[in-house]
Write a structure and sequence with these properties.
Blueprint lengths: L22 H26 L3 H26 L2 H6 L9 H25 L3 H27 L4 H4 L5 H20 L6 H25 L4 H4 L1 H23 L7 H32 L2 H19 L1
Helix pairs in contact: 1-2, 1-5, 1-7, 1-11, 2-4, 2-7, 4-5, 5-7, 7-8, 7-11, 8-10, 10-11
């Protein structure tokens, strides 16, 4: 019998090329885009239920977040003209092309919604823009998960079913956290419920993604990525609990809600940066490219024999 061979790549080099994206730009772009898109959904809910202060604040924060996210993307691209070039064609099979057009539609709608809310003019136009931003916001918040999963990076592609939903939960938690920070406690009831649901979904989806990844899940648990994702879970749970308990805190309700909101925002950012770091680590280590293929082939062989 020949002993089982241990996998070694050619001179120990990676099998695939690691993402060349800068973590600060692209992980920041993932986070800010999610905050903007989910924030517009909460802003629309606040707008149409008479929570004017929270609605205005969320519209302004969503506009700021999408502006910063585009700036981060352009900075990674190197030249602003490269972003404009992505709008020259529309390719439905390309997440990058679809995402560029989503930003092109969402950004102006978010801008009009924020401008009319702050100025108090053109209320009907503002309502239409608010609705438009809310309709495109979920796609803006989640398409980056599809974009990452569409690559060959093992820690992203292996979780292609869970990653967009995980990004949605993380974005919702961030938007609820922003509502806690900038909105009055009396108007944040829906945001509190959204924060609790998003935190539970985030934990469940993270666990499901790690189960699906198999051995590649080590990149989600170790080193920088593992530290960030553990911190993200702790911050999300603490933020959700603080936000839910804020109304019962009496005079401390406002600072309690604000601290909970900051924790949710930080937890969402740690989630995006942690997943980004896990992807880079999985691409740099050749084991995580070949071993998952062997595991998949073994499962398929077992199912055929069964």
């Amino acid at each position: 019998m020949v002993p089982r061979a241990e996998f070694q790549s050619y001179y120990g080099r990676p099998v695939i090329k690691a993402p060349s994206w800068a973590a600060r730009d692209i992980a920041g772009y993932f986070f800010l885009g999610g905050l903007a898109g989910a924030g517009s959904v909460l802003a629309a809910g606040a707008h149409f239920t008479g929570r004017g202060t929270t609605a205005t604040a969320l519209k302004v924060s969503s506009l700021g977040a999408v502006g910063l996210s585009v700036a981060a993307l352009v900075n990674d691209l190197g030249r602003p003209s490269r972003f404009a070039h992505m709008l020259r064609v529309f390719k439905p099979t390309s997440p990058m092309s679809v995402g560029s057009w989503l930003l092109g539609v969402y950004g102006p709608a978010a801008g009009v919604a924020a401008a009319t809310a702050v100025s108090g003019t053109f209320r009907r136009v503002g309502a239409v823009a608010t609705l438009g931003a809310a309709l495109t916001g979920p796609a803006v918040a989640t398409y980056t998960g599809v974009l990452a999963a569409d690559t060959a990076v093992p820690a992203w592609h292996g979780a292609y079913r869970e990653l967009p939903y995980l990004f949605a939960a993380s974005a919702t938690a961030a938007a609820a956290g922003m509502a806690f920070v900038i909105g009055p406690v009396r108007e944040t009831g829906p945001a509190r419920r959204a924060a609790v649901l998003a935190t539970v979904a985030d934990l469940a989806l993270s666990a499901a993604a790690e189960r699906r990844l198999g051995s590649v899940a080590e990149t989600w648990r170790e080193n920088r990525a593992g530290m960030l994702l553990r911190l993200a879970r702790a911050l999300s749970v603490a933020g959700g609990m603080a936000g839910a308990a804020a109304p019962a805190a009496g005079r401390a309700a406002r600072p309690t809600a604000a601290l909970g909101g900051l924790a949710l925002l930080a937890g969402s950012a740690c989630t995006r940066f942690g997943i980004f770091a896990a992807g880079v680590a999985s691409a740099q280590d050749p084991r995580y490219t070949v071993v998952p293929q062997r595991e998949r082939l073994a499962r398929e062989a077992g199912s055929r024999e069964g």
